[in-house]
C-alpha cells in the first residue's frame, strides 16, 4: 500500500533527474525489488507515512531495481543480500550515514518507528546542509533493538 503513495522513478533518467533537480531538499530513494518482499513493504509503508511530515525539506521516491537496473552495480544493490536500500542525496551528492551496521552507503534495515525515520532523515539533511558527506545516525538509539530488524 505504501508504495502506491510514493512517487516511482521508472527509468535511470528519472533517477538522475530526481537527484539533480532538488537544490534545497534531501532526496531519499528506496531502491528494491517489490516482488514478494515483506520487509520492503513495511519500509514503504513507513516512508509513505513519513513523506508528508518531511515534504518541506525532503522528497521520498521509490525505484524498482528489477525494472531499473542502471544503478545496481554502482550502488551495490543486490536483492539476494539486501531486499532494499534507502539512499540519501543532497545537491547531486550521495550522503552517507553511519548507522553502526558497517555499511554507511545506505540504510538497509527495516525501521518501523516513524519518528525514528524522521529523526534519521533530519540528521542526514542537517549534516548535508552543513556540507558533510557523512553523518551519524541520531544518538541514543540501539540499532539492534526490537524496533529495528537488521536485514542480512
Mean pLDDT across residues: 88
**Biggest β-sheet strands, sense, barrel:** 5 strands, mixed
CATH class: Alpha Beta
CATH superfamily: Glutaredoxin
Q: Please compute the radius of gyration using only Cα atoms.
A: 14 Å
Kindly estimate the percentage of residues that lie in beta strands according to DSSP: 15-25%
The 3D shape can be described as: globular
Tally the structural domains. 1
What structural class should be given to the helix and strand makeup? alpha/beta
What fraction, in percent, of the residue positions are helical?
A: 25-40%
Total helical segments: 4
The beta-strand count equals: 7
Q: State the distance separating the first and last CA atoms.
A: 24 Å
The CATH architecture comes to 3-Layer(aba) Sandwich
Keywords: mRNA processing, mRNA splicing, Nucleus
Subcellular location: Nucleus
Pfam families: DIM1 (PF02966)
Protein name: Spliceosomal protein DIB1
Question: How would you describe this protein?
Answer:
- The chain is α/β, with parallel strands linked by helices and 152 residues long.
- The chain has one domain (2-150): Glutaredoxin.
- Helix content is 31%, strand content 24%.
- The chain contains four helices and seven strands, in the order ααβαββββαββ.
- The chain has helices at residues 2-5, 12-21, 38-54, 114-129; strands at residues 26-32, 58-64, 84-90, 93-98, 109-111, 134-136, 148-150.
- The strands form two sheets. It has a five-stranded mixed sheet with strand order 2-1-3-4-6, with helices on both faces. Strands 5-7 form a two-stranded antiparallel sheet.
- Helix 3 (38-54) packs across helix 4 (114-129).
- The longest helix has 17 residues, at 38-54.
- It is globular, with a radius of gyration of 14 Å.
- The two termini are 24 Å apart.
- Residues 143-152 have low confidence and may be disordered.
Amino acid at each position: 500500500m505504501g508504495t502506491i503513495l510514493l512517487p516511482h522513478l521508472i527509468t535511470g533518467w528519472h533517477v538522475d533527474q530526481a537527484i539533480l533537480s532538488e537544490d534545497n531538499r534531501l532526496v531519499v530513494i528506496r531502491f528494491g525489488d517489490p516482488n514478494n518482499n515483506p520487509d520492503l513493504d513495511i519500509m514503504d509503508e513507513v516512508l509513505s507515512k513519513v513523506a508528508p511530515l518531511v515534504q518541506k525539506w525532503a522528497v521520498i521516491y521509490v525505484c524498482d531495481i528489477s525494472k531499473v537496473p542502471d544503478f545496481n552495480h554502482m550502488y551495490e544493490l543486490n536483492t539476494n543480500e539486501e531486499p532494499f536500500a534507502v539512499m540519501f542525496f543532497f545537491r547531486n551528492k550521495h550522503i552517507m550515514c553511519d548507522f553502526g551496521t558497517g555499511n554507511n552507503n545506505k540504510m538497509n534495515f527495516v525501521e518501523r518507528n516513524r519518528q525514528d525515520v524522521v529523526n534519521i532523515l533530519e540528521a542526514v539533511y542537517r549534516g548535508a546542509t552543513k556540507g558533510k558527506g557523512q553523518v551519524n545516525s541520531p544518538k541514543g538509539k540501539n540499532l539492534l533493538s526490537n524496533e529495528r530488524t537488521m536485514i542480512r
